[in-house]
Amino acid sequence: MKKIYAIALLGLMVLGVAATASAAEIKASGKWQIDATLQNADFLKKGGISEDKQFNIEQRVRTAFQFIANENLKGVLDLQIGTANWGNGAFGIGAGRAASTAAGGAAAGNGNVMLRKGYVDFKWPGTKVNFLVGFQTVSLPAAFGGGSAILDDQIAAAVVSAPLTDSVKLLAGYARPYDANSSYNTTGSTLSGDGTSADVVFAAVPVSLKGFSITPFAAYANVGEKSVNGNGAAAAAGFAGPNSTAGQGLRGYWGGVAATVTALDNFKFMADFNYGKATYNVPTNTSNNGRSGWLADIAVDYTGLKMMTPSAFFVYSSGEKGNSTDGGQDGSNRMPHLGKAQSWAVGSFFFGNRSFINGFPQNAGYVQNVMGFWTAGVSLKDIKLVDKLTHTAHLLYVKGTNDKRFLSETNLTTSSSNGAVYGGFLTDKDSLWEVDFNTKYMMYDELAINLDLGYINADFDKDVWGASKASNAADIKNFGSNNAYRAGLNVTYAF
């Protein structure tokens, strides 16, 4: 009997070895974060309303796996649990602890596992042509700001890249960000017929030479009238003009260039130009109700110091015009965009903080809401005075480029990006100073402790906002603008 068991065990071992030999190699990586943040960022003096002081502890777990068959083929699976606040729901953040009964299970527990990426990465046999097909991160080119202000998000897409010469490459792709012809959408219903999907095509030509790189790009979107939960393109963040209504399809066009120059010793120059236009297929009146605008930036880093990297930057984006024939009652003069720009930020407070889970204040942040500004600033990056300890400091001035008359001449809403949110939308009468000081301690090679401190001295015109159609206009007029602060402690395990 023992011999039979031994033979059976040997057979299982052989089968296991054979299975292992034919299986893909698996590599795991991840970023597990826990943030504790105290902030006051509503930009309103206390007066007769409660002050917006928030203390939250958030947790997010991202874990990715690469299933590598060979150098030409692999699959990527990236999963996320959270983001969730400690204490949300029934004492915890675990899956099912705060399950929702909403149609389609749209919010079935903050602890549920979410697919962040899932795609196949392969090369065409015998060539260097590479394909990425599936749910993936798509970001249009950007030299400065950390990511594209137009499109930088996880999206269902097919992307191909091919070298044309040793220094020139072609990148092209197709994506479908919205499709209401599905059993899973936030309304819990399935839509059918024409106009239920949104389709995007894009292309870029990266050119890399010694000491210089430049990437021109273009994108086109055809958005169906019923593509976004049945409400049409007007419901899609970043598309709508100030007076647009639901149920309208649109066409969106974008183009731009990103450039980096390192030819000069100890200097790195970065510059971007982005332009976009969204035109509605079925305008509700004589106005076009669309959006068109641009964003440009330039930055320079001095890399000749070992202890730090000084940097200076300037960013400008077009803003709303004020008269009713060319501004509020017609189209929007802010650049349209696809989704939320997850990584674009300067400084680490008003425009966002890429180190933290939720680095954006509720009213500010996300470039979709802030668009219509100019800012100039300086940074001291990667200050190294003690082993394993680095610091970064930012000083920036921000002023709006939106005409103050826009607030009183449009049917704005405070809850959508086609309107104007106090504390995020800046008129040409609004400005602020921001100071940040951030510290990172690498306890281990994979474990970082971050302490980020930020302060904003705000000057929002209470007369302009008090005469607007914002829902909190009376409070703004009575109490005016207040300064904001933020202190965050973060633990990040990256492997």
Q: Would you give an account of this structure?
A:
By secondary structure, the chain is mainly beta. It has one domain: Porin (Beta Barrel), CATH 2.40.160.10. It has helices at residues 2-22, 88-91, 367-370, 406-409, 462-466, 473-479, and strands spanning 25-40, 53-70, 73-85, 113-123, 130-139, 152-163, 169-179, 197-204, 207-209, 212-223, 250-261, 267-280, 291-302, 309-317, 373-386, 389-400, 431-442, 447-459, 484-494. It has an 18-stranded antiparallel beta barrel. Strand 2 and strand 3 (73-85) form a beta hairpin. The chain is globular.
CATH architecture title: Beta Barrel
Instruction: Tell me the major beta sheet.
Output: 18 strands, antiparallel, barrel
Question: What do the pLDDT scores average to?
Answer: 82
Number of spatially distinct domains:
1
Helix and strand pattern: HEEEHEEEEEEEEEEEHEEHEEHHE
Topology:
Blueprint: H1 2-22, E1 25-40, E2 53-70, E3 73-85, H2 88-91, E4 113-123, E5 130-139, E6 152-163, E7 169-179, E8 197-204, E9 207-209, E10 212-223, E11 250-261, E12 267-280, E13 291-302, E14 309-317, H3 367-370, E15 373-386, E16 389-400, H4 406-409, E17 431-442, E18 447-459, H5 462-466, H6 473-479, E19 484-494
Antiparallel strand pairs: 1-2, 1-19, 2-3, 3-4, 4-5, 5-6, 6-7, 7-8, 8-10, 9-10, 10-11, 11-12, 12-13, 13-14, 14-15, 15-16, 16-17, 17-18, 18-19
Short description:
With 495 residues, the chain is mostly beta strands. It is built from six helices and 19 strands. It has a single domain, classed as Porin.
